[in-house]
Write a structure and sequence with these properties.
Blueprint lengths: L6 E8 L4 H11 L4 E9 L5 E4 L12 E3 L2 H11 L9 E3 H7 L6 H9 L5 H9 L15 H5 L3 H7 L7 H25 L7 H13 L1 E3 L1 H26 L3 H9 L1 H8 L6 H5 L4 H9 L2 H12 L5 E2 L3 E2 L9 E2 L19 H9 L6 H10 L1 E2 L4 E8 L2 H10 L2 H9 L3 H10 L8 H14 L5 H10 L9 H14 L1 H18 L4 E3 L2 E5 L6 E4 L5 E4 L8 E4 L4 E4 L1 H26 L4 E5 L2 E7 L3 H11 L14 E6 L5
Parallel strand pairs: 1-4, 4-5
Antiparallel strand pairs: 1-2, 2-3, 6-7, 6-10, 8-9, 11-19, 11-20, 12-13, 13-14, 14-15, 16-17, 18-19
């Protein structure tokens, strides 16, 4: 049955709330937020109109579609009582990403539809929420007091810009122009409604549910972080023989830091590999933990939960990405803390204990909690991408390593150094680890060196020829995977030339217009490569710039997407089973259940993640998990 013709909508609004830092849900919960207008286009009748507050909404019980519906417009729809059809909200940004098109509306209009963004009108509309002067009239603030206020205080009580009739007309025209882009795009987006709808719905449910956030612990960690940073700055000042204020100023300024240390840049990866005292100060003053904890405190709701942390289809392959506190890339615990009870550490932090940087970083995860009388149950697929690449390529040796519980890094080192696995040294295992992490998707010596740098492994004793030999040894050990690289590249090129190509279970299909290529996964979901160019080199149009295509990248995309679909299947099964997923991070599902049913729920999640859908029959799946009040690795 065909889907009902939706009404395409776009809101323009203004508020004292900062949309960029607070997100759409908080924005529309803020009392100062007000819709200026909502432009609409009826895809059934072709009618166009504009709604303004105070008017009746003319499309009750209709399906409504908007760009970023799940992150912004749905909350305005709820606030103004538009009463759409049941399950009648469509996010066209999600459809665009499924189709391999830009997720941003202006990029969609410019690049694919030839409709330029009205930059001046966009800037004018944003300026209506810009607060630059104190309010006048009753309770007015003097210029002197205004200058002494924080930006947040100014935003809370300053004067919003006046909006006259001419300005309002300009806003309406801008709003209509966005709906015009959507109307032109809709015929290309509508076919994607049938692709992956259940995973999108599960994401919305998870974002609505949220996860508990321990604000008290977050504040305790921030205090500990400030104390630690001050101590480090004082120690560096004593070592260099200069005032602490000068150390702090130099460490905070990228320009000063590079000038004084000779560093090529002030990025965390570069600074972390340096021995200079100022590097210690800079790392202490710009800890990853601090930014995440502040974000959590900014975004937590009145009921103590963080919401809207997941971005559906955040990657080209369909994997999720993070918003807000960025829960997909929380710091990993230091090795010494991997087996420590996080509840004990958290209690110590709450009691005001002095904490080192590793403990603070470890406890960022512990700020995520279950609600009262609830527990978190988590389960993580074991080495799922490595297993997937090996299994799909027919690399039986690699599959047996994963399923037997053998150490893949020692197996790689054994092949590299020609020694039995039992005799591999710790240093040799480190090289095996770098090779295993760098080479699986076509990486060569440079990728090997980059992985070594990231893991702080010294390669100074290895000449260029030896590094090349290590890469070749890995490829010799995993020849089936190397062959899969070549097969995917050949199939992609064949499809780019207008003919269907196969590489194992992956089908590469040309579009009707001949400009695009889709890699159809066994699940039926496609990865779309738009505006493909052929020749000596292959490329496609990515979200920002053209992307080079080669066999290793195609295998990486296909494997990541395959594993994503395994995750989506398990996640949707957990949702149907009433296990209440509250988070997914990479290959992990975290659910929240009543403590009274923890044992049965843990067993049910383990069972769900031990099964695979029909299209993945035979996949060598494995997983492990835990149960607890606080989130941990």
């Amino acid at each position: 049955m065909a889907s009902p013709a939706p009404v395409l909508i776009d809101f323009e609004a203004r508020s004292r709330a900062d949309l960029k830092t607070r997100g759409g849900r908080h924005y529309w919960l803020d009392p100062s937020s007000q819709a200026l207008c909502c432009a609409w286009y009826d895809t059934g009748s072709g009618e166009v109109g504009v709604w303004t507050p105070g008017q009746p909404w003319p499309h009750s019980s209709r399906v409504l579609a908007a760009h970023n519906m799940s992150g912004f417009d749905r909350f305005a729809v709820e606030r103004y009582g538009f009463a759409p059809a049941p399950a009648g909200l469509v996010d066209t940004a999600a459809l665009a990403r499924r189709a391999g098109l830009p997720g941003a509306l202006d990029a969609l209009g410019q690049r694919w539809l030839g409709l330029p963004k009205d930059v001046a009108a966009s800037k004018f509309t944003r300026s209506l929420s810009s607060i630059r002067r104190p309010a006048r009239g009753p309770g007015r603030i003097s210029p002197e007091d205004w200058r002494g206020m924080t930006k947040a205080s100014q935003r809370a009580c300053g004067a919003l810009p006046e909006l006259d009739q001419a300005g309002f007309a300009r806003v309406i025209q801008y709003c209509l122009s966005d709906v015009h882009i959507l109307a032109q795009a809709w015929p290309r987006l509508a076919p994607w409604l049938a692709v992956d709808p259940e995973a999108e719905a599960a994401t919305v449910a998870c974002n609505d549910r949220g996860i508990g956030f321990d604000s008290e612990l977050a504040r305790a960690l921030l205090r500990a972080d400030r104390t630690l940073a001050s101590r480090v700055v004082d120690d560096v000042a004593a070592e260099l023989g200069i005032p602490s204020a000068e150390v702090e100023a130099a460490a905070r300024s990228p320009k000063q830091f590079c000038a004084l240390t000779g560093a090529a840049n002030a990025q965390a990866l570069t600074v972390g590999a340096m021995d200079h005292p100022l590097a210690r100060a800079r790392l202490a003053l710009a800890s990853i933990a601090r930014g995440k904890l502040r974000a959590g405190l900014t975004l937590v709701h009145a009921d103590g939960r963080l919401r809207d942390t997941l971005a559906y289809y955040g990657a080209h392959t369909g994997r999720w990405s993070s918003r807000g506190m960025q829960l997909q890339n929380l710091p990993r615990p230091a090795k010494a803390l991997e087996c420590v009870d996080v509840d004990v550490l958290a209690e110590a932090a709450l009691a005001g204990a002095e904490l080192d940087a590793d403990t603070i970083a470890c406890l960022v995860r512990a700020t995520l909690t279950a609600g009262p009388e609830q527990v978190l149950i988590a389960r993580d697929y074991s080495q799922v991408e490595g297993r997937c690449a090996a299994w799909l390529a027919g690399d039986e040796l690699a599959v047996s390593v994963y399923t037997s519980g053998a150490d893949p890094y020692k197996v790689a080192a054994s092949a590299i150094y020609g020694v039995p696995v039992s005799e591999v040294t710790k240093a040799q295992r480190q090289i095996g680890k770098c090779a295993e992490l760098a080479c699986g998707y076509g990486g060569g010596p440079k990728a090997f060196e980059a992985i070594a740098r990231g893991n702080r492994i010294d390669l100074s004793g290895l000449c260029e020829a030896e590094r090349k030999r290590i890469v070749e040894a890995w490829r010799g050990l995993h020849a089936p995977i190397v062959r899969l690289w070549a097969a995917c590249q050949a199939a992609f090129r064949r499809a780019a030339q207008g003919r269907t190509g196969w590489a194992g279970v992956f089908q590469y299909v040309p579009s009707a217009c001949g400009r695009h290529v889709a890699c159809v996964l066994p699940s039926g979901r496609p990865i779309v490569y738009t505006d493909v160019h052929t020749g000596k080199d292959l490329s496609y149009q990515g979200p920002i710039h053209r992307e080079h295509v080669y066999g290793g990248l195609l295998v990486e995309n296909a494997v990541q997407a395959y594993c994503r679909d395994l995750m989506a299947d398990a996640w949707c099964n957990a949702e149907r089973a009433g296990l209440n997923p509250v988070l997914t991070a990479h290959d992990e599902i975290v659910c929240e259940v009543s403590a009274s049913v923890a044992a049965s729920a843990e067993a049910e999640l383990a069972d769900i993640m031990s099964r695979v859908p029909d299209w993945a029959r035979g996949f060598p799946v494995g997983s492990s998990g835990w149960v607890g009040r606080r989130y941990r690795k």
